[in-house]
Design goal:
8-stranded parallel beta sheet; 25% helix; binds 1-deoxynojirimycin
Length: 560
């Protein structure tokens, strides 16, 4: 195991093989009954989290926000949204987590603030060219009167990435004037990371939460901070990185690494140093591993497994590739199947093989009715995939509700939708609300025990998945996760593995250095148990297997 992180603390590497549970605070647990989850709700569920057996929680933003993008539009980076609690509630939550042996990771959103941030408000009331404007990306428009946006860049959520303001100061006060850049919603103006005050302020934010005891940070849109804004702005009608060689004007530019080297210096002021993980949707090239170097954030998400079909060859080659990538960077790998931005994986796996992203979006738009998902199959595959992944070296990031086997809520009424994608695409893409529906805790309680009337409606079938229905029930998804996380701790091994199956085989089998084995049958039919497997060593299974076989789409764990 690498000890690159400078520290005298025995737990400095806690994150390298942690099971991290993502909490989307508004949808986790509502203690004050206003229909929106909150920090006291998280504190109240610490016993559940501890029993689940996770090592850390990662909280999506809980900062003051108008919720134009579910909290990723931050008004104030160093406070708590009053609807979600107070700084005292935050401290109480951290204390409860630490008392339960659970570490806390918070989200930092450095690419953009909200349009209600005090700096942006000051930028709007100041004249073009003022120091207040310089912290954001304000540009004159093209065309005779500046009536055209400064470039053709689209927003991630649909529509263009520029909004024109009415000037409030200077010679043109009262008239339409400059444009500001927002790669996401209009309410999310992009910062200018060439500005020293922006850099310094994020150091202050990191220290603010680190001083309050958080153990790590998840860095939103990490690959987007450094931009080439030299004139004329280059045309880029697609936001995708088409060629990842550092020449893209908006993403994965070389300069971004100097920013994170600065962050690492701040994170290393603490002992143990604070952990960090980059959210950087960059293709798999050697460039991706730079974010994860010990001299930068330490870890980077890879979304390869999340984007892959349930397929033996794909899973194996992705695992190989990501483990090599991690080893080369000095990081440990990360694994993730679900988060607050994607269709829950039991639903993805329930759709016809070969479904593309466009197919998934069309399925959501059809309220999940066509094609008809094969839900039992989706859940069976999801459970097998999860056990495949939880055995791998590295950190596992789990999304709230996956331990309950929740499916996507694909038929949310249109009137309830809140994702800016829905609005900015003029109702052509439904967006991410279906994976953000508040959790079901108890089947018989009002709002399934979540709290007040949830901000997104829960479907009736949530009752069958409620935590209390699964608690103590052998074979339930909740109990499978609990056993897996328990065994994962007991069996944890050095950060490597050996493949015991041939590439291309539909039964994929690997062994960790201490002899812990994981074996997944990706086929839809049972497979014979390999002759050298002692069935008495099977400690965990994602599904039923007849004697001498591994069930269809099933994973087994074998203890040494
Ligand atoms: C990635 C976050 O995960 C997503 O929810 C958000 O909309 C964008 N970044 C913009 O902050």
């Amino acid at each position: 195991m690498s000890t690159d992180i400078p520290s005298t603390h025995p737990d400095a590497n806690w994150w390298r093989q942690a099971a991290v549970y993502q909490i989307y605070p508004r949808s986790f647990s509502d203690a004050n009954g206003d229909g929106m989850g909150d920090l006291p709700g998280v504190t109240a569920r610490m016993g559940y989290l501890s029993e689940l057996g996770i090592d850390a929680i990662w909280l999506s933003p809980f900062y003051p926000s108008a919720l134009a993008d579910g909290g990723y539009d931050v008004d104030d980076y160093r406070n708590v949204d009053p609807r979600l609690g107070s700084l005292d509630d935050f401290d109480a939550m951290v204390a409860a987590a630490h008392a339960a042996g659970i570490r806390v990771i918070v989200d930092v959103v450095p690419n953009h603030s909200s349009n209600r941030h005090e700096w942006f408000k000051a930028a709007l009331t100041s004249a073009p060219g003022s120091p207040e404007r310089a912290r954001y990306q304000f540009f004159d428009g093209l065309g005779a009167d500046g009536e055209l946006p400064p470039s053709d860049w689209p927003s991630h959520f649909g529509g263009g990435a520029w909004t024109r303001v009415v000037e409030q100061a200077g010679p043109n006060a009262g008239s339409l004037g400059q444009w500001y850049l927002h790669l996401f919603a209009t309410e999310q103006p992009d910062f200018n990371w060439d500005h020293p005050e922006v850099r310094e302020d994020f150091h202050t934010t990191l220290r603010f939460w680190a001083d309050r005891g958080v153990d790590g940070f998840r860095v939103d849109v990490a690959h987007g901070l450094a931009k080439d804004m030299s004139l004329p702005l280059r045309s880029k009608p697609e936001l995708e990185i088409l060629v990842d060689d550092g020449t893209d004007p908006l993403f994965d530019r070389d300069d971004v690494h100097e920013i994170f080297a600065g962050w690492r210096t701040v994170l290393n002021e603490y002992d143990p140093p604070k952990a960090a993980v980059a959210e950087a949707w960059v293709p798999f090239t050697e460039r991706r591993l730079k974010y994860a170097r010990p001299t930068e954030l330490g870890q980077a998400f890879n979304f390869d497994l999340l984007q892959a079909p349930f397929d033996a060859a794909e899973f194996r080659s992705i695992a190989e590739k990501c483990l090599d990538e991690a080893a080369a960077s000095g990081a440990s790998s990360t694994w993730v199947f679900s988060n607050h931005d994607v269709i829950r994986h039991p639903s993805r796996y329930a759709l016809p093989d070969g479904s593309t992203l466009a197919d998934l979006e069309a399925w959501l738009l059809a309220d999940g009715a066509t094609p008809v998902p094969d839900l039992p199959r989706g859940l069976r595959r999801a459970r097998a995939a999860t056990l495949f992944m939880l055995g791998l070296p590295g950190s596992a990031y789990l999304y709230q509700g996956e331990e309950l086997g929740l499916f996507e809520v694909a038929d949310l009424p249109a009137a309830s939708l809140q994702d800016p994608t829905w609005f900015r695409t003029l109702h052509k893409v439904k967006g991410r609300d279906g994976c953000r529906v508040p959790l079901p805790w108890s089947s018989g309680a009002a709002n399934f025990g979540f709290g007040g009337t949830p901000w997104l409606p829960q479907p009736a079938w949530f009752g069958e998945h409620a935590a209390d229905v699964q608690d103590g029930v052998a074979g339930s998804t909740l109990e499978m996760y609990r056993s897996a996380l328990d065994w994962r701790r007991k069996l944890q091994s050095a950060e490597s593995l050996e493949w015991l199956s041939e590439p291309g085989a539909s039964v994929v089998r690997y062994r960790r250095p201490n002899g812990w084995e994981v074996l997944t049958n990706f086929a839809a039919v049972p497979a014979a148990l390999p002759a050298d497997v002692d069935p008495a060593k099977v400690v965990l299974s994602s599904g039923a297997s007849a004697d001498g076989t591994v069930g269809p789409e099933t994973t087994l764990w074998l203890a040494p």
